[in-house]
Amino acid sequence: MTANNLHTLSLDGRSALITGAASGIGLAMAQAFAGAGAKVCIADLDADKAEAAAETLRAAGHNAIAVAMDVASEEQVDAGFAKTVEAFGSVDVAVSNAGIQVISPIVDLSLAQWKKMMGIHLDGAFLTTRAAMRAMKASGRGGAIIYTGSVHSHLASVLKAPYVTAKHGLLGLARVVAKEGAEFGIRSNVICPGFVRTPLVDKQIPEQAKNLGITEEEVIKTVMLKDTVDGEFTSLDDVAQTALFLAAMRTNALTGQSVTVSHGWFMH
Ligand code: NAD
Question: Which of 77, 100, 115 to mutate to test the pocket of ligand 1 (most atoms within 8 A of CB)?
């Protein structure tokens, strides 16, 4: 990092595509990137919410577009990247963030549920990565690819087999991307958040309580926050600031790594 870059994390003149950006963590990243000067593409399965998010950013004076994208669809991912390149000239930052959760013991999990999770989390990450690398190689500007992993990229929890498997898989993909992307100036890193209060987590609290036979309060205290150093949820801002740091830094040294943002849960 040069001295000039130490004072501010700027994405001026750069464009970013974030998947799953109509809600939660992806939306917070989009807001942070736009605030740092980036042109932002909100890509999401929920086209109406994506358009509303882009409209809110435009109303605040930012340059933003929305694309309807199922990350498990090759056609839609490629089209979303093409639309972003057409609108902004390049994709300099790509975040593979879209995700869902299934809470179930393995013995009750259907193959269809397993495949759906792999489709969104792993096919989605591959398709997003390939489209991003092609765009970054073509522009000659390099870029940053960021994956939303999880503390579950590093550890296991009951009832979350497909999620834990997929999130571990992102670490492998990101490391290969770091190696293959280096010659094109492409960096690749994984952010591993602890629990963040988003719709994804709010939905799983009652499901886990039912499966484990404990109260929702107990799920929060004895499952979600028990290993943090301060009993705090990770905030949207905690994750968005980390993403901004990884996106805006001008050094090629930080690549192929995972950064855990979890109030101390899982120290390694
Ligand atoms: P969220 O439900 O608030 O947002 C997820 C977004 O992804 C939604 O807008 C949804 O429409 C979109 N989406 C779902 N399937 C999609 C698909 N096939 N194609 C495109 N978009 C799709 O959830 P969130 O908590 O913000 O989760 C975002 C990412 O963060 C996920 O990968 C999740 O696993 C990860 N994560 C979340 C937490 C947490 O505690 N919330 C912790 C660690 C990692």
Answer: 100
